[in-house]
Write a structure and sequence with these properties.
Number of helices of chain A: 11
Low-confidence stretches of chain A: none
Helix content of chain A: over 70%
CATH class of one domain in chain B: Alpha Beta
Largest sheet of chain B: 6 strands, mixed
Number of strands of chain B: 10
Distance between the termini of chain B: 35 Å
Shape of chain B: globular
Helix content of chain B: 25-40%
Low-confidence stretches of chain B: none
Number of helices of chain B: 10
Order of helices and strands of chain B: EEEHEEHEHHHHEHEHEEHH
Bound molecules: adenosine-5'-triphosphate, magnesium ion
Strand order of the largest sheet of chain A: 1-2
Number of domains of chain A: 1
Oligomer: heterodimer
Mean pLDDT of chain B: 94
Structural class of chain B: alpha/beta
Distance between the termini of chain A: 42 Å
CATH superfamily of one domain in chain B: P-loop containing nucleotide triphosphate hydrolases
Order of helices and strands of chain A: HHHHEEHHHHHHH
Radius of gyration of chain A: 18 Å
CATH architecture of one domain in chain B: 3-Layer(aba) Sandwich
Strand content of chain A: under 5%
Largest sheet of chain A: 2 strands, antiparallel
Chain lengths: ~290, ~230
Amino acid sequence: MIDFLQLTIYGIVLGSIISLGAVGLSLIYGILRFPHFAHGDLFTLGAYMAFVVVVFFNVPVLVALPFGVALTALVAVAIDQTVYRRLRKVKPVILLIASVGIALILRSVIQLVWGSGNRVYEAGIQMPHLWMGLRIQNDHLIIVGGTILLVIALHLFLQKTKVGKAMRAMSDNSDLAQVTGIDVNRIIIWTWIIGGGLAAVAGIFLAMDTRLHPVMGWRLLLPVFAAAILGGIGRPYGAIAGGIIIGLVQEYSTPFLSPAYKPAIAFALMILVLIVRPTGIFVGRKV
Amino acid sequence: MSLLSVEGIYGGYGDVDILNGVNIHVDPGEIVVIIGPNGAGKSTAMKAVFGLVKVREGRIVYQDKPITNLRPDQVVKSGICYVPQENNVFPTLTVQENLEMGAFIRNDDYSADLKKVYELFPVLHEKRRQQAGALSGGQRQMVAMGRALMLDPKLILLDEPTAGLAPAIVDLMFENIKKINGLGVSILMVEQNAKQALAMSHRGYVLTTGRNRFEDTGKNLLANREVAEMFLGG
Ligand SMILES: Nc1ncnc2c1ncn2[C@@H]1O[C@H](COP(=O)(O)OP(=O)(O)OP(=O)(O)O)[C@@H](O)[C@H]1O
Ligand SMILES: [Mg+2]
């Protein structure tokens, strides 16, 4: 029982990280209609951007986090405006391939600058809190708490602000958004700021939980896609739930399977959903 | 002076022209209707005004300013609103959010226009918190028109506002269009319910294969034997 609860904690932590990625992926898909394969490498970029600030100014990672987020959002917008923007009218598969190219470029640059070894924000081992026989680390509380705050903020943004509503409108019907007079490019820029920013947070959280490595984000891309698809791709709220489910399932599998197979579990779940319920597991109207 | 004048436009979606010299004008305060067989290019003509179809030749003038081949958002800013034939609401947004999107380009207080729309369509006020996709066809059409009205436009383009609606609702929609016109908004609409539409409009055009075939007052077109036989079902 204790083991199960312990795995639940790990699953929620991992699920939070996956959710932050999946929600951005889902928003981007909803608005630009292509699966963004460079999303995992935006995680990595965010983690390393924060690392630079940590090392340069000798500050704790939480202080560096906003800078890492801002820089990553900026890079995401720049990539969109220089590369993806030129491809708005082509078939989604072309954009998909372009994003794979961007993913490779980002990873190579990161590897070139920081090398292919592991890095950490803070040397030393954190002592976990012991609570009713469960081990809980400070970082875990930060990751889950931070994710909850961000999800609430995103919800308020999408429901209450003009730009957030316009994002939902574009995701519903981008042709109609255009003839309604919505400034489509401005909304797309906002989508990248949010998607890129959340990816950076996910990357920083992942690096806090494990360590920095040039392929850390790419390795998480599969579970992130699985989460977005589970939640019905294009639906940010579904992606959050999908992320938590994938995180939990991956951790629950560890007593039975080698942890190396964790992504395989996510992949299997994703395939299952695509075959049985391609619109995602949550009830909702396909529009 | 015409509010809108479409002068001899040619254009289409690819290499082949769908429009082969269409001429349409709308004067201030008018209801103008375009009828014609399926595939005649009626929707295409409207899309051309709105910058959604490339105009290869000819010109479009709105309030003495050329608007040929402007981007859709620029056309909106010049004061024309457009209600497409299909998929003309944001289904997962609430009714009120749909109307707010109509006012996206405005940075001033638009609550007076929101109130005006709710007065025109009280049922929308009742359902303002419901998702637009869950409404009936007639109510969705009201949302789409209401969204267009949020900019307080001088001219609204309506593409088949009564398509697929039950007869009683069709009558109601035509009443609504008259009411909107009563507010001083000019209307250019495409209609399949040709008789009713011509009866309530000031002028009408019959379009076939991307060309003007007939053009007259609504009353005269209804009385024209050839038009009646070919396009009004006898
Ligand atoms: N997006 C498009 N791409 C290519 N061809 C199109 C497109 N939309 C319409 N067409 C073609 O243009 C021609 C005119 O179509 P249009 O929609 O303007 O007709 P319409 O008069 O509005 O007909 P309806 O009464 O059926 O609405 C048709 O031959 C149609 O197949
Ligand atoms: Mg049509």
